[in-house]
Design a protein that fits this description.
CATH architecture: 3-Layer(aba) Sandwich
Strand order of the largest sheet: 1-3-4-2-5-6-7
CATH topology: Rossmann fold
Largest sheet: 7 strands, mixed
Order of helices and strands: EEHEEHEHEHEH
Radius of gyration: 16 Å
Number of strands: 7
Structural class: alpha/beta
Shape: globular
Helix content: 25-40%
Bound molecules: guanosine-5'-triphosphate, magnesium ion
Distance between the termini: 17 Å
Number of helices: 5
CATH superfamily: P-loop containing nucleotide triphosphate hydrolases
Strand content: 15-25%
């Protein structure tokens, strides 16, 4: 992530997806879990993905690519990072929730160049029912994913190893889960190098 990154497109529905490049990774998770913040933190550009206190900030599939790869002239980016709308945001109007959920599910199921999903779980809340539904979908669709705990600055440091262990146990039998759980804080910078290393390794596979 040494070079600059740019936003290229917000995708409100499947038919507006950009052409499939070589590799794509997506950040998924419940509303407000910290997807946009984590993308900004690992890329090192504060205002790149828009973040907010209010759940439901990100409403489209937002595509980010390394600067210089945003042209339409067939120069596909080596990696695209996708910031997804959150799921499980109860206060939004039902039609909107349904539309986001459909988009998130269709994308996760249908995007063939999606190499891995980083499924974010708030360290304070753990795996909720709607997270489990997304995990089921990813397992069924055989889309590789890795769990990333977020906001670990909000829990006692002594509790982190046990939370990692519990989360690892919860996904042990899941077919498409990458076994290693990452624990991160976008605020404090914890776990960011590990996440960057995981993505770098993915690029080499
Ligand atoms: P939606 O787009 O609405 O689904 O949310 P999101 O998952 O993109 O979350 P976002 O990055 O907008 O962050 C939500 C809130 O959590 C913001 O107020 C962030 O400042 C806060 N937040 C994100 N990461 C961290 C973290 O590591 N630690 C703490 N303490 N707060 C965080
Ligand atoms: Mg967001």
């Amino acid at each position: 992530f040494a070079q600059g990154w740019v936003f290229i497109r917000g995708v409100p529905a499947m038919k507006f997806l950009p052409p499939e490049g070589p590799l794509e990774i997506a950040f998924a998770g419940r509303s407000n879990v910290g997807k946009s913040s984590l993308i900004n933190a690992i890329i090192g550009q504060k205002g790149l993905a828009r973040t907010s206190n209010t759940p439901g900030r990100t409403q489209e599939l937002n595509y980010f690519v390394p600067d210089g790869h945003s042209g339409e002239g067939g120069d596909l980016p080596p990696l695209a990072v996708v910031d997804m709308p959150g799921y499980g945001f109860a206060e939004a109007p039902k039609e909107q929730v349904d539309a986001w959920t459909r988009l998130v599910f269709d994308y996760l199921r249908g995007r063939t160049t999606l190499k891995r999903v980083y499924l974010l779980i708030d360290a304070r809340h753990g795996v909720k029912k709607n997270d489990a539904e997304v995990l089921d979908l990813l397992d069924r669709a055989a889309v590789s994913y890795q769990i990333v705990l977020t906001k670990i600055d909000k829990i006692k440091p002594a509790g982190v190893p046990r939370l990692i262990e519990e989360t690892a146990q919860a996904i042990r039998k899941r077919a498409a889960a990458y076994p290693e759980i990452l624990a991160t804080s976008s605020e404090k910078g914890a776990g960011l190098d590990e996440l960057r290393a995981a993505i770098a390794q993915l690029l080499e596979e």
